[in-house]
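Re: Re: ligand-bound prediction request (bumping)

Still looking for help on this. To restate: I need the protein modeled with zinc ion bound, output as structure tokens. Inputs repeated here so nobody has to scroll up.
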Amino acid sequence: MGSFPQAARELPELATLYEVLETFGDRAEPHVLATVAHAGVEFPIVAAVVGAARADAPTLALFGGVHGLERIGTRVVLAAMHTLAQFLTWDHVLDATLSEVRLLFVPLINPVGMWLRRRSNARGVDLMRNAAPYPEAAATPLVGGQRLSPHLPWFQGERGAMEVEARALCEATREWVLPARRAVALDVHSGFGTVDRLWFPYAHTRRPFPSVAEAYAMSCLLDDTLPNHVYVMEPVSRNYTVQGDLWDRIYDEYTGGRAFLPLTLELGSWLWVKKNPRQLFDVLGGFNPIRPHRLRRTLRRHLPLIEFLLRAVASERAWSGFDAHERQRLESAAFAKWFA
Ligand SMILES: [Zn+2]
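Reply:
Sorry for the wait, this slipped through. Here it is.
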């Protein structure tokens, strides 16, 4: 670990990230998006870009650690990075795929929050409530974002000011995701409910977002391809509405047509608590699998999804590029399933 920054000695997830980058070697291009200084330590927010260099190359982007308590999200992304880095040492098929497809990884967006064992960043801001609000939005009280106090959860931050971590996430998507002609982003969180959910926009309104046909096609493709998968796919707004969700704003910035799906993988952590109630006495216990076998199970559980998304991003026909007639059919089916 001699060449790793000091922050990697403070935070095991950062140490793992640098180890995985070593495995990728020159196949990954690392970028420090920003650094956040806290308690005399400089914590880097690291992105890694792998594969096709063309700006418009189809892109799969994996994000984690927006909420510092949800360490498992970062670990799921790191586990995927590890497996992909190992594949790249011998697998010709992945090698060929990555001549056309780009991977972006930002596994730890809020390192200081993780170090402090809190959901927010050091300034008490919930980064997933920190984007510019939509004037017409009606957010669920409290959980949907509040400006009362940084000492309460879901604090949106100062009006008009974006936190450095939120800016880093947005800038990474502007650089490597929004120029892509097809893209899927998967932002891994934990803490809601007992099943693993795949959420798509919008979060600020119950109204369908413009890519609802693509979301519906992706959901059918997932059901057909991995019929025993564990996910409930649905709009975020079926559960609550949120002011300041970064993915709503990032989605609205995309101009490359409709083939961009920013997905949030919300791991159902209540199941881990139900099976091991004692872990509620640990601040991390409400959001992470604590027992080793359950952690291992979680880390392997989502690899098929990530491989599926990589193949879906590489393949246009399956979930995008519809003519008007097909789009209408998919939108009607989507309305009936999610918005009726
Ligand atoms: Zn979260």
